Every structure is written in structure tokens, then in C-alpha cells.
Amino acid sequence: MITGSCLCGAVTYTITGKVGEIVHCHCVTCRKAHAAAFSSVAAVADADFVVSGRESLTAYESSPGKQRYFCSRCGCQIYAKRDNTKHLVLRLGSLDDHPGVDEKCHIWVSEKAEWYDINSTLPAYPQSE
Q: Which domain CATH number covers 17?
């Protein structure tokens, strides 16, 4: 079992299944939403994700059909969800435990921050893979 939480602890979650491979996204929306050079994410099946403190979650539609969920108290990004999918995109910075998977790649490097250099042997793709 893997757990996670927001910065203030109002939102906690448990993952009862597997976490997908770790991807580092450099798209403009991820950079802006996280105020960082990139966002580290992984897919989790909806059925394997149990949230406590859901009343503290707020959603923002960052692009058509995609909601980003974050704590309304501390602003911590928890996950994103696209319409008509059976998984969510977990924001790995909110994990309290090791996800038990390895990093896979960097995506959307065509939109990466100009001031950031990727110093990694991981594959890097101009858009999503």
C-alpha cells in the first residue's frame, strides 16, 4: 500500500494497486501549475485510488476535459483526471512513500523551461510519447 498527502494534511490518499511508470512532463501547463521546471507523474487506476478529505479538494479545468485537483487549503497538486478515462495522473510530489516503479522518460521537452537543462540518461521526447 502506498500513501500520499498534501502539504497541510487535509487531503490524504491510499493507492491499493500498482503505480504506472514515472514520467517527467515539461509542458507549459505542468510547469505553470507546479511552479517548477517539470512535473513528475504516473498513472493510477481509478479503482486503486482512495481519497480522504475530498471536501478540501478543488478542481481546475486546465484544458478542455482535463481537471487538475489540488488542496484548497495549501494548494498542493494531488492529481489530474481526463474525461472518459479509467485512470488518474498522480502528482508524485504528494507521495509519502516510494511508488515502487522507475522513471521512464521526459516528455514535452519541446516546451521545457529555457533555463533548465535535462541532465539525465532517460529518453526525452518533444511531445508525449
A: 2.170.150.70
